[in-house]
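Researcher: Please predict.
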Amino acid sequence: MATVSTATYEAFGLTVRSAFDVPELPPAETEPDGRADVTITEERLPRPLSADSESTFHAVDEREYYLLYDAATVRILDGTSIAVDPASDVPSEVLRHVLVGPALNHLLDQRGYFVLHASTVSIDGRAVAFVGESGVGKTTTAMACLLDGHRVLSDDVAAITLDNAGPVVRSGYPSMKLDPEAVAAFDPPVEPPEQVHSGRPRHFYGLRHDQPATPVPLERIYLLEDGESIGVDSVRPDEQVMALVDNTYTLGALDADGQAVANFSACGEIVDMTDIKWLRRPFDLDMLPEVVDRIQSDLESEPC
């Protein structure tokens, strides 16, 4: 992977000083005075002796996490540092998927965000999150919203905090992971990926729109599910909290002391202040414009 002496980027409202070249992150407009919010360094990292040999995630405690991949061993510490021990000759794009995906997302958890496995968009100044199992279409639905003129806040993760008015979403970085065939078929307003590797099925495509400088109020969470027709339905109250728990990005970290209780409490607060609904639709890419129309109709007819 290409390394640089140091470069300073921005992501999720944080300044990130990295020893690695990460073109998916926008350069910081100004160098921070003193320390950056987050540092990414290259270090030798032995595998923790207490880590399960079959697991790719290990929490020493709530302030020290390890990601244990073939591509790299990564330590996330105190919400301020990411140390990376890359495998020999790991392709740059493969390692960047680790850095701006799992590594950064687990760091957000340490910084006190509720990190939801979701793609998020801004529709008329309101954040909408799409949640579901891998392959159910979170990114594809976000791309459909982008095609309709809306802004993508983050791909594959929602970084949520609670303020006095309710939950808000912090935008991430101006890139989203897309299948090249989908880009060729739909021609979304994105920039070509950089430093790609043929072994990756999806690449980071740069977004052309600006990211909101301030958090966006979270209006709706849609649980995606395949269906014979497009429909939006209520989620039973007893299912809502568990749906958020099950889709917590940092689910593996809940074994750390106190994490499960804090996560459950955050899920309950979000449910109290946000509408959570099923969004069912056929697996038919030609129907994506109709899916977006149904989302907009739901937002307009039933304000949260």
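Model: Residues 115-301 form a domain with the Rossmann fold fold (CATH 3.40.50.300).
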